[in-house]
Amino acid sequence: MTIKDVAAHCGVSVSTVSRVLNNHPDVSKEVRAKVQQAIAELHYVPNNSARDLVSSTIDAIGVVVRGSGNPFFTPVINAMDEEADKKGYTLISELISPSDDEIAAAAELVRSKRLKGIVFLGGRFDYTQNEVATLGVPFVCCSFDNRFGNLDESEYSSVSLDDTAEAYKATEYLLDHGHSKVAILLDSVDSNSIGTLRFRGYCAALKDHGIPTELELAVQTGDFSMAAAYDGTLELMRSHPDVTAIFSISDSMAIAAMKALSDLGHRVPEDVSVIAIDGIESSLYTVPTLTTLCQPQQDLGRDAVKVILGVINEGAHNEHLRIETTLRPGGTVGSR
Amino acid sequence: MTIKDVAAHCGVSVSTVSRVLNNHPDVSKEVRAKVQQAIAELHYVPNNSARDLVSSTIDAIGVVVRGSGNPFFTPVINAMDEEADKKGYTLISELISPSDDEIAAAAELVRSKRLKGIVFLGGRFDYTQNEVATLGVPFVCCSFDNRFGNLDESEYSSVSLDDTAEAYKATEYLLDHGHSKVAILLDSVDSNSIGTLRFRGYCAALKDHGIPTELELAVQTGDFSMAAAYDGTLELMRSHPDVTAIFSISDSMAIAAMKALSDLGHRVPEDVSVIAIDGIESSLYTVPTLTTLCQPQQDLGRDAVKVILGVINEGAHNEHLRIETTLRPGGTVGSR
DNA sequence: ATGAAAGCGCTAACAT
DNA sequence: ATGTTAGCGCTTTCAT
Q: Deepest of A2, A265, A298, B92, by most Cβ within 10 A of its Cβ?
């Protein structure tokens, strides 16, 4: 069943069928109707490979996900998929481990699948112009930006939080509840990562409240896993039993931390308060419910795809969307 | 940069380059080396669209996921992706809502993307021969089978649990701990779904222990969402405060149930015990740790892809793999 | 408004 | 062992 069959079926040429298929104007009403009916009757489906062969790229974008185990990403990716679908695009995802080079993975993906663009999810904040030059297609950073790199704003798009500001908010929320011995649970303070940025917000909030930062209260787990967060929290509380509050940079790490606190006999929030950033579904069901700053996961994914398709299809300029969190008050923060 | 350029670059014909590309034997050592070097130097990447155009299908399989919000699926899909990648295949995923028709979605996907096979994840147990005839490619059911349909074993593959047997085990575990007022938390008892099968195992275990089934103790939530599981549990415990144990057909529903129990002031496991089937990461971090029958999620995904690629590439017969769970004793089951 | 025909990059007969 | 060539299904000039 090819375009030829359809053409033969209605006694027209293949070009006419092609025109109907692509909504070209130069087709008479009657012929157009006849062809459309034939397409329906014959259950004709265009062969995308042939279609794609003609143009140099295909209607697809890739998403390179670093740390696909992160439950925060699932709804984000689903939203991307939906939006891409709606626009007639295929979303091809490539899951990489934290040690892999996301740019190399993306470049490879672009070339082998002939993609029109890339979405990076959970990537590094320090791309260089040299690196991204290998990409050859527009890209958007989802949930991060190029703060530590040397890219010009016009060279890429991003949809992200103001990580430092949000971390400031979270920390301040704890301080406002009377806490002063506040720990932070993060991947690393100095890896030019999301942890670094949020650490800055944490420090700034402490400073503004006249509290000196103690580096020992920064629990650096090395990654975003629950297992490491659990271990880190155990260690923290054993060495610093006077900590009364913890700011975790992610919900899932906070959930693991709460488990560690419980295993040590600390009650949340009576003994130790916990706040995080994310707002994943399962943190609604912890006991007590996790207090957290919710990111609009659907919007994140949807907007990332919208932005990239804008620059791909409409030649729009690169954009930098800043999204805001909303506080979801749970039961994990108590007053002192 | 096409195959032609590479050919010209080393003064051979395109067919020779094509042979090298596809590892055909009939190429001399020297020429092969020369061509490979040219490919590397020129950074030549084959155009898949052209390649695909020649053959009638492309090296890709689809996975149709019903209920993509389910955290149980994430590691399964990731494992599929990895295995497909390893075999040089692209995995194209299509997320559908529980109300969508998965076979229609799959058929559409196969036709538009020209796939070689389909993996169904979380689908119905009652496909008919007429339905699947529209598919036209081999398929494998992942996490379920065709128990309620009329397919012959040779017509499809499956990788799944023995749901009834596993539910029997879970229920018996509660009974062995002295419980007799045991509720079950599921989507539905009679929808020919996974819930139906597990309900059977639950009933069988009760019966074997001389306990009559009370339909009122079956909490039917209508779906697999945490929200519905939470509400269902609230209702159950208000109307049947004498329930001492709950078997949940999924971890995430169990987590929501534990939250409901806590909100009602019931302690786990002192007042009410909980057991489930799944073994997702986050159920390791509930307080107490969820007692559950773990499914090997990685194996599930990997094996599903292995099986389908076996029948696609090697003309292997359809297979029906049964995987077993392993009990992960947590702290949510107490003795009476 | 419609048709004829070239060509996208590749594979696979079919030569040699 | 290597080259020649005919398509694969489609889009797109270029004619008419």
A: B92
Closest-CA distance, A209 to chain B, in angstroms, reads: 33
Residue written as token pair 């990685």? B298
Using the beta-carbon criterion (under 8 Å), do B82 and A95 form an inter-chain contact? yes
A173 CA, D7 C1': separation in Å?
A: 69
**Which distant-in-sequence residues (6+ apart) come within 8 Å of A10 by Cβ?**
A17, A31, A34, A35, A38
**Is B60 exposed, middle or buried (CB count within 10 Å of its CB: 0-12, 13-18, 19+)?**
buried
Q: Are the C-beta atoms of residues B303 and B323 closer than 8 Å to each other? A: yes
Q: Is B98 exposed, middle or buried (0-12, 13-18, 19+ CB in 10 A)?
A: middle
pLDDT tens track, chain A, 336 positions: 899 999 999 999 999 999 999 899 889 999 999 999 999 999 898 988 898 888 877 889 999 999 878 899 999 999 999 999 899 898 988 889 888 999 999 998 898 888 999 999 999 999 999 999 999 899 999 999 999 999 999 999 999 999 999 999 999 999 999 999 999 999 999 999 999 999 999 999 999 999 999 999 999 999 999 999 999 999 999 999 999 999 999 999 999 999 999 999 999 999 999 999 999 999 999 999 999 999 999 999 999 999 999 999 888 999 999 999 999 999 999 998
Give residues with Cβ within 8 angstroms of B210, minimum separation 6. none
Q: How many angstroms away from the CA of A54 is the closest CA of chain B?
A: 9
Distance of CA A57 to the CA centre of its chain: 25
Question: What are φ and ψ of residue A66, in 5° steps?
Answer: -100, 120
Q: pTM for the complete prediction?
A: 0.91
Cβ contacts from A onto B, under 8 A: 99
Query: Is there contact between A27 and strand C, defined as CB under 7 Å from any strand atom?
Result: yes
Q: Which residue of B has its CA nearest to A52?
A: B49
Peptide bond connecting B269 to the previous residue in cis, omega within 30 degrees of 0: yes
